[in-house]
């Protein structure tokens, strides 16, 4: 009998998050205060985050214990299954072995609750009443809405306007969990009003939505801001994915030669890859390759500049050194809304600069084609974001076929596409198009970078 699914019991779930900073050969560049250009202090971040998350953000400890109350909620869907994609292998006629870690089994349908539950827990412990946040495709917003409902927190979500229109059912899910959802840019904040005054028909961006949610959070002492990607503590919380995968691959008697994940802000890629990169940094294995895949319409890693930039459009956030297209860059309204961010996680950017990760950008049509190929043999319809990882995994499997080599490929299927049916309908009707980034717009955005570079 050929095994398809590798599962762990609840008592085999990781009890600590892994912090890759403990194993890096060189530390990350410091986060800078936007007013002084000097490294920020914990007190500078207190208006935005509870102290426990600030401590995690700067920690150099290898392991950070997962609170039991967070573990108890994780057990509703964790450990998540690891699948051997045997039917996909057969369809591709490849000697490669393909595995995927499926995060779509969470209540919100993606990997995002791994950090949403943790952030809601620490905010509740700090007696916070309300969380504000942004969301692109809605996976993060729905995850924080779910977590907020569990902990009795009010949640306000600024949803990028193009996704607000494209994905009404994702918005409905957030509202079902009790969250308030606002199309961004909006008239409710100074940042939103400024954008609309200049660009009345703006489709919005994650940078704008971050500005709006940060502005609201800092004006209310009972509110804090929650971010679904980019920050160190967010990537930290996602590492349960990779450590479960390591244990499941041990069940299979296998170990990956290639690890693949899509990248927008960096959280799901870090979740699957950082535990394996840590093993490589510690000298436990050496041959593994890591591939981060982003949309050609927003190619932060492949075309962005590694430099200090703001995380938002209105310049309300600290300055972080990351791969960026410029905080004013406005990407095309591709359906992979969760990958439409002008910057990349500073920690992931640093790991890329260390030469530990390969990067590539893919257009949306070929990614949708890969997603449908996967769905028709494996039965799971992926989120548009996850299609980027599938495209790269298929390409690597076909390379094995051409070269006559057998490699073990692992990718993170970070969420299902059940709330993205309009995107698939548009694709199959021939209504979607490939869009490349506008080099002139990127040049203009980069020209406006802060002076601390």
TrEMBL record:
- Catalyses which reaction? (1S,2R)-1-C-(indol-3-yl)glycerol 3-phosphate + L-serine = D-glyceraldehyde 3-phosphate + L-tryptophan + H2O
The UniProt keywords, alphabetically, are: Amino-acid biosynthesis, Aromatic amino acid biosynthesis, Lyase, Pyridoxal phosphate, Tryptophan biosynthesis
**Which molecular function term from Gene Ontology is one that the record holds?**
L-serine hydro-lyase (adding indole, L-tryptophan-forming) activity
Its family remark reads: Belongs to the TrpB family.
Q: Which organism was this protein described from?
A: Chroogloeocystis siderophila 5.2 s.c.1
> What role does this protein play?
The beta subunit is responsible for the synthesis of L-tryptophan from indole and L-serine.
Q: What's the subunit arrangement here?
A: Tetramer of two alpha and two beta chains.
What does the record give as its pathway?
Amino-acid biosynthesis; L-tryptophan biosynthesis; L-tryptophan from chorismate: step 5/5
Q: What is this protein called?
A: Tryptophan synthase beta chain
One Gene Ontology term, aspect cellular component: cytoplasm
- UniProt lists the gene as trpB
